[in-house]
Write a structure and sequence with these properties.
The chain is built from three helices and 13 strands. The chain is of the alpha+beta class. The strands form four sheets. A five-stranded antiparallel sheet has the order 3-4-5-6-9, covered by helices on one side. The protein has a four-stranded antiparallel sheet with strand order 11-10-12-13, covered by helices on one side.
Length: 270
Amino acid sequence: MIWRSGGQKLERNRLIRRSGERSYSPNHPITRSRDQSGFTLFEVLLSITLTGFIMVALLIGMRVANRAWRTGEARLRQVHATAESNTFVVQQIASLVPYRVTTDDPHLPGTFTVLEARAACLRFVSAYSSVYRSRTGLVLVEYGIVETSPGIVAVALRETSVKDNDALLHMLVRNVTNDPDTGVPLINYQPFSLRATDFLLMRGLGDAWFEYLDLHPKQGTVPIWRKDWKSSEEAPYPGAIRLRWELGDQAGEEVVPLHAKLIPLSTTAQ
């Protein structure tokens, strides 16, 4: 028995030396086959790190996309608001009502066309209002180009219900003087200054101004645009009113033709 066992042991050692390999159990947790695939700790950490970078990139991309969407939506709302404001301005100027006031006031004698047409201010009578739409009657419309911050202007709107001609005239005219050279009466209008109740229709502009179309200039036969308009018996109103503005490197304008021809005369109650 001893010899047989010793012989078997020698035979087993000889076979091991011949093969030059150790025997492995394919199911043993330590001595499993070397050709089976697996992940090292470094590979696991690397994959986790890469996954984290991808998630951070996705979050940043979503944040940038969300910010771009919000910015685009804000710009779109601003464009729509500007378009609506421009449409309202055009409709209100187009609804200009020809209006004259004759008064015996010693401080403001004579007949006045209710119109102030300058580059930075436009005042007229209209039946179209943003405030008094549910009421009937006329309103004094005042547009002013005001500075809201250094280098930035806006178009301000003020509307006042017309109750009597005397009050209307004093809201428009400060006094009347005569030109020392020609003796022609000069109308000095009330200054336009921004109030808390005024509406700012067009904001953030670099510049803005009104222009007035003279269809029959004294010099020349071609109609020209003027930044100041003086009413006369022959031409109480311009042929058109143009609002021009600048926003950054862009420029825009709105042209409103006028069909005001007849001017009804009215006298203030004394």
